[in-house]
Design goal:
InterPro entries: Bact_Kbp (IPR052196), LysM (IPR018392), LysM_dom_sf (IPR036779). This is LysM peptidoglycan-binding domain-containing protein. Pfam families: LysM (PF01476). With about 350 residues, this protein is mainly beta. It has 3 domains: about 5-125, no CATH class; about 140-240, Thrombin, subunit H (Beta Barrel); about 250-350, Beta Barrel (Thrombin, subunit H). About 10% of the residues lie in helices and about 40% in strands. The chain contains 4 helices and 24 strands. Strands 7, 8, 10, 11, 12, 13 and 15 form a 7-stranded antiparallel beta sheet that branches. A 6-stranded antiparallel β-barrel has the order 17-18-23-22-19-24. Strand 12 and strand 13 (about 220-230) form a beta hairpin. The two termini are about 35 Å apart.
């Protein structure tokens, strides 16, 4: 499901001071092109990967073209050019390219002037892959669960509800009295536990419906279920449906400090994940992570039998992929896997890119 609001929220933020970027050396990819014409369906990450070994380093060699309006956004039809300034690689954009077929059949490309809406800009990462996690996923504390209003029943003594039904929730703290807005109906489940410290990092709350308050008397909330993705049941919790868009400018960047995290949760996968899958990490805001941070993923080396000495040895770990953080909570984060050379498993490490700290 491609959400237009999410597409609009992703614009290509490239005007970032070099002084604030990680100091890792930029390496051009073998066989890189000298130019590339942006197409529908491209992402900033994919385009960067055509030129660079590490796509997140795009801002380090971006050269602003002051002659075009809003040079921080990239659109289908734009031409990305690779050049060198004082021996250093630079990428720049030529806004909009017009195709013209000549008499000899050769396609001639020339710049053209046009007005383009900002929401047509290509996203930094695939918006469709993370839309549901922005809209429907929460990580909450045990206290937040205990204090949230919860469903106690509905009409006709039913215990299962859906779109169009009226349900009743008890709000013992009357914290939303007088507010007129929609709320999310959530089911709490997965407990996130740090695999090393055993600290409880939070609880997964999954949105299964939306409701609008029709009445509020004392501790009792009356809600009209406006939509549902599965059966709504007694004891489901009510949380505010805040607007959870990725910030308007998503900068690919290394964390400000060294981060060493573990993958602690898959979604809709059993044994392993790969490119365009979403994972949960055991690090968050308190550990210095923020939206747009890039982490390298490492898989543990296989344990093999040493036939000469007769004991078991562990082979060195290997980099198996990379991910971008797109949503951050206090103690955990959601990341989208952007690259994977091998299957990625639970408890694999996710760390700051080598040379960035």
């Amino acid at each position: 499901m491609m959400m237009k609001s999410v597409q609009r929220a992703f614009t290509v933020g490239l005007m970032l001071s070099v002084a604030t970027l990680a100091s890792a050396a930029v390496t051009l990819k073998d066989g890189h092109p000298s130019k590339y014409y942006v197409k529908n369906g491209d992402t900033l990450w994919d385009i960067s990967g055509r030129f660079l070994e590490e796509p997140w380093q795009w801002p380090e060699i971006w050269q602003i073209n002051e002659e075009i309006s809003n040079p921080h956004l990239i659109y289908p039809g734009d031409e990305i050019r690779l050049s060198y300034v004082n021996g250093e690689p630079r990428l720049s954009v030529e806004r909009g390219v017009q195709e013209q077929v000549m008499n000899n059949g050769v396609v001639k490309l020339s710049p053209k002037v046009r007005e383009i809406a900002n929401d047509e800009a290509i996203p930094a990462i695939p918006a469709s892959a993370i839309a549901a996690y922005l809209k429907e996923g929460l990580v909450v504390t045990r206290q937040e669960i205990q204090e949230a209003p919860y469903l106690v029943g509905g009409r006709d003594r039913r215990v299962v509800f859906g779109e169009g039904d009226t349900v009743y929730a008890r709000d013992t703290r009357t914290q939303w009295e007088g507010l007129e807005q929609g709320y999310g109906i959530y089911r709490t489940g997965e407990q996130y536990v740090d695999p090393e410290t055993k600290e409880v990092l939070g609880y997964e709350a999954r949105q299964i419906g939306l409701g609008r308050v029709s009445n509020h008397e004392g501790e009792m909330l009356s809600l009209r279920v406006t939509s549902s993705t599965e059966d709504i049941r007694i004891d489901d919790r009510i949380f505010s449906t805040e607007d959870r868009r990725v910030r308007a400018v998503l900068y690919p960047s290394a964390p400000d400090t060294k981060v060493e995290a573990k993958i602690i949760r898959f979604f809709d996968r059993i044994n392993s994940v790969a490119r365009n899958d979403v994972v949960v990490l055991n690090k968050g805001l308190r550990d210095g992570l923020k939206e747009g941070n890039v982490l390298d993923i490492f898989g543990a080396g296989e344990i093999v039998r040493d036939r000469q000495l007769g004991d078991n040895v562990q082979l060195p770990r290997e980099k198996t992929g990379s991910l971008v953080i797109f949503r951050v909570f206090d103690k955990v984060s959601y990341g989208l896997i952007m690259e994977s050379s091998r299957p990625i498993y639970m408890n694999d490490s996710a760390e700051s890119p080598v040379g960035s700290y």
